Amino acid sequence: MPPSKIGDILDIIRNGPRLAMNIPARPPVPKDGLDAMRAALGGSPREMLASRDGFAVYGDAASVLALAPDMARLAELDRWGVIATAPGDDCDFVSRFFAPAAGIPEDPVTGSAHCTLVPY
Question: Are the C-beta atoms of 102 and 9 separated by less than 8 Å?
Answer without folding.
Answer: no
